[in-house]
Amino acid sequence: MANPTAAMLVIGDEILSGRTRDANLAHLAGRLTLAAIDLKEARVVADDHRDIVSAVRALSTRWDHVFTSGGIGPTHDDITADAIAEAFETTIDIRADARELLAAFFRKSGVALNAARLRMARIPDGATLIDNPVSVAPGFTLGNVHVMAGVPAIFQAMLESVLPSLEGGAPILSRTLRVDRPEGEIADPLGQIARQFADVSVGSYPFVRQGRFGSNIVFRSSDETALGAALDAFAVHFPDGHEQ
Amino acid sequence: MANPTAAMLVIGDEILSGRTRDANLAHLAGRLTLAAIDLKEARVVADDHRDIVSAVRALSTRWDHVFTSGGIGPTHDDITADAIAEAFETTIDIRADARELLAAFFRKSGVALNAARLRMARIPDGATLIDNPVSVAPGFTLGNVHVMAGVPAIFQAMLESVLPSLEGGAPILSRTLRVDRPEGEIADPLGQIARQFADVSVGSYPFVRQGRFGSNIVFRSSDETALGAALDAFAVHFPDGHEQ
Questions:
Q1: How many CB atoms lie within 10 A of CB B225?
Q2: Which of A33, B32, B94, B143 is the most buried (most CB within 10 A)?
């Protein structure tokens, strides 16, 4: 059976202006690979209500899970929760349980739960809260969309709250072999191997290091026997390949 | 007049599996901001022909420019050029000028121009070549889509070949002020300022540093006077803000 699929939606002008370098996609990609959920697509959109709504609709219709990052804080440019509600044609309002989480947290630190902070308790109707052990303000899951913060430490913590509830597929086994030759020299036999072993994904990733070209060849499969056979075939053609 | 718009399409399984951390989006974002071209959207898709075709169509229809990275090398998983040709409903074949570039390069280094390397001379009909000063194999521009390599050094070199030919808009001026207070404390006056100065984009980016919350406030505008006025208004509310 095929693995569950997923997409990521990164929300925020700061990524598109180059001000902030997104770190959440790479983190999510690595964690989903371990969980045997196939990340199939990612998008980055600006803080624009209509763009968020249409990306959420497109991704949540096509893939099993969607993970979003960004736009759930207290400021005027945090518009993700409202966009998610609209994407699912549901209402949104301050919710008692989320408000209580925030109230308890701010009471303890002697900080006012003002109108801006209360915005973080706005949760679309029908959503489940996602625990935020870093700064309390929760994320939420609505339908198949998991809405999380953009700050990497909080994104990562929320992801760990969500992952245990998701069903994964067969774990993907991965082996990487490096060949210190340019892709153009190895492409023909590599293509043959890729065609021969249909259950193994064979990716070739060129690099330039100290002015020399080399290739990392990544073999991925959930079938250990097929993976071993493909590696054996590779070793025949490329005895100079070494494990990375 | 509004600035020209752009989107990026990152092509490659390796980004989605977490094996490789994309570096090209952040680089492109920074360069386009300097060129006064607004990056509005980015997508990452797998090495899947249909996914590439449909993303290219969606992005090139909506935005003024599309920049792609990845999938133009010699191996079996390099399928970008064919997908671009299909997206524009044109043909693709080995082109004489691209072939000659490769032949001259490999002749000089005494390397065979084999069938795999010749794949890098496959250029869609009607495209213009993009110079590759690093490893010769060219990128190309077809319609409003600029097709470039995934290896960061080559992507960056190709981008510098393309950018001078593109018309930019009014340069965006940007100022960042840091306030060592959590977003929840500054959100209300900040929202007022954002509403008051419609020509200035005001973004708030929270951070956690050594366990304390702070906010970077980014003001962006092509109108220097408006930008100055927004900063003055900000200083009244937040005398503790300091330039980053």
A1: 9
A2: B32
Q: Is A110 exposed, middle or buried (0-12, 13-18, 19+ CB in 10 A)?
A: exposed
Q: How far is CA A238 from CA A181, A196, A234, B118, B235, in A?
A: 10, 16, 6, 21, 64
Which tens digit of pLDDT belongs to each residue from A23-37? 999 999 999 998 999
| pLDDT confidence of residue A168 | 84
Is residue A19 domain-shared with residue A67, that is, in the same domain?
Answer: yes
Domain count, chain B: 2
The full DSSP string for A117-164 is HHGGGEEETT-EEE--TTT---EEEETTEEEE-SSHHHHHHHHHHHGG
Question: ∠ CA B115-B119-B125 to the nearest 5 degrees?
Answer: 135
Side-chain half-sphere CA neighbours of A195 within 13 A = 8
Domain identity same for A36 and A101 = yes
Chain B hits for A75, CB-CB cut-off 8 Å, are: 183, 186-187, 190-191, 204, 215
Query: Among the residues of B131-182, which ranges form H helices?
Result: 152-162
What pLDDT does residue B1 have? 63
CA A7, CA A18: separation in Å to the nearest integer?
A: 22
User: The domain that contains A108 carries what CATH number?
Assistant: 3.40.980.10
CATH for A186? 3.30.70.260
In angstroms, the CA B38 to CA B64 distance is 10
The answer to whether residues B62 and B149 belong to one domain is yes
Please, which residues 81-100 of chain A have a Cβ atom closer than 8 Å to chain B? none
ipTM of the complex: 0.89
Residue with tokens 């497109």: A58
In this structure, the answer to whether residues B33 and B112 fall within a common structural domain is: yes
Size of interface A-B (CB pairs under 8 A): 208
The verdict on B42 and B13 lying in the same domain is yes
Residues 192-231 of B with CB under 8 A from A: 194-195, 201-208, 213, 215, 218, 220
For A103-121, the pLDDT digits (tens) are 999 998 888 899 999 999 9
Are A184 and B77 an interchain contact pair (Cβ–Cβ within 8 Å)?
no
User: Residue A170: what pLDDT?
Assistant: 81
Token pair of B10, please?
A: 């990152």
Q: Whole-angstrom Cα distance, residue A95 to residue B241?
A: 33
